[in-house]
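To the wet lab folks,

You asked to see what we're planning to order before we commit. Fair enough. Below is the target structure as tokens, and below that is the sequence we designed to fit it. If anything looks off to you, flag it before the synthesis order goes out.
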């Protein structure tokens, strides 16, 4: 098959002929139709984000595809099914604390690294080998636009955070980092799942206006100044009542003070979920006052990506159009134009901009 290969950090991806993947036990081979590209992919491939990828590797974080072969343990999946492939791989020998790797992207600890070496290659290819449990059937309407449906992965990540924070219908949510790709996805998912009001702090006025125009009065934009106390007061005022939950999706370059300004708006017994990249490139650690957390019974928790069930939930939300993908701005690139695609994604990382690789489907 043909695949885009990262031969070393800092080098362009090269499209090469490599052996077709072969499914082992508990695995499926999928023909890739559409694979989304994160806006920060260039930072990973350059080595600036220092992800634990081991070149040479075919990168790519899941996507939409059609099943080519299935193992004997699959009871419902069939050859020819259109499916969503989740890149979050979990070890099968520890139900309590499984090791995790993001196939073709990242991993956690030595156990995650071992997983990543087994399922080394991601979705920037014509074919991909995926664990059976990571393959989720898509509804018939996804046949019409697999590239648009590939943005499911962008929405599933913040959905995992909202599930972790137990966001309930009618609650007020603050999305820290709302003007970015993942943050704006969190806004959309929160509203689709019943949030009563979503506060969207950010510095990008155009992106804030776009969120308000798309979602109407349930969204309350707040333009940040960089003054922590003033920004905290502005976010609290925009809520017009208690803030039940804060989810942070700020990128590594953001200061920890911005996370703190948002987090400390949450009400007594409120929840704070941390999913962003703050601190990954150095800088000050997040400092939250012990007395504030303790006396207000605030829950602070981290969440890396999403549980398996979130994929099914996202498919249902999109199929029902509770989450509408039609306003997405989708730009597709062929496999041969992969480096152009990576550059385009880096330059178009705003709300609802999607960059998608569409390998040839003629195999």
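Sequence we intend to order:
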């Amino acid at each position: 098959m043909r695949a885009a290969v990262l031969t070393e950090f800092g080098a362009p991806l090269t499209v090469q002929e490599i052996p077709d993947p072969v499914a082992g036990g508990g695995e499926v081979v999928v023909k890739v139709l559409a694979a989304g590209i994160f806006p920060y992919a260039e930072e990973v491939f350059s080595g600036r984000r220092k992800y634990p990828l081991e070149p040479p590797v075919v990168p790519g974080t899941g996507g939409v595809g059609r099943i080519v072969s299935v193992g004997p343990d699959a009871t419902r999946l069939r050859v020819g099914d259109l499916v969503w492939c989740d890149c979050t791989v979990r070890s099968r020998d520890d139900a309590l604390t499984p090791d995790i790797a993001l196939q073709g992207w990242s991993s956690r600890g030595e156990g995650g690294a071992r997983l990543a070496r087994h399922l080394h290659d991601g979705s920037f290819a014509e074919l991909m080998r995926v664990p059976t449990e990571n393959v989720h059937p898509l509804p018939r309407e996804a046949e019409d636009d697999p590239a648009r449906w590939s943005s499911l992965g962008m929405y599933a990540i913040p959905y995992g955070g909202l599930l972790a924070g137990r966001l309930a219908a009618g609650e007020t949510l603050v999305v820290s980092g709302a003007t970015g790709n993942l943050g704006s996805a969190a806004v959309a998912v929160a509203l689709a799942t019943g949030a009563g009001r979503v506060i969207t702090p950010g510095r990008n006025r155009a992106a804030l206006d776009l969120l308000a125009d798309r979602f109407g009065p349930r969204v309350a934009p707040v333009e940040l100044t960089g003054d922590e106390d003033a920004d905290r007061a502005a976010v609290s005022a925009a809520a017009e009542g208690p803030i039940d939950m804060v989810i942070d999706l700020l990128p590594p370059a953001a200061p920890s003070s911005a996370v703190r300004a948002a987090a400390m708006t949450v009400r007594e017994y409120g929840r704070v979920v941390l999913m962003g990249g703050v601190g990954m490139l150095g800088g000050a650690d997040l400092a939250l006052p012990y007395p504030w957390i303790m006396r207000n019974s605030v829950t602070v928790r981290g969440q890396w990506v999403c549980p398996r069930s979130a994929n099914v939930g996202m498919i249902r939300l999109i199929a029902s159009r509770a989450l509408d993908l039609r306003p997405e701005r989708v730009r597709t690139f062929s496999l041969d134009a992969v480096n152009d695609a990576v550059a385009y994604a880096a330059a178009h990382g705003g709300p609802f901009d999607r960059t998608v690789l569409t390998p040839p489907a003629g195999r």
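Structural context that might help your review: The first strand starts at residue 2 and ends at 5. The chain has eleven helices and 18 strands.

Thanks,
Computational group
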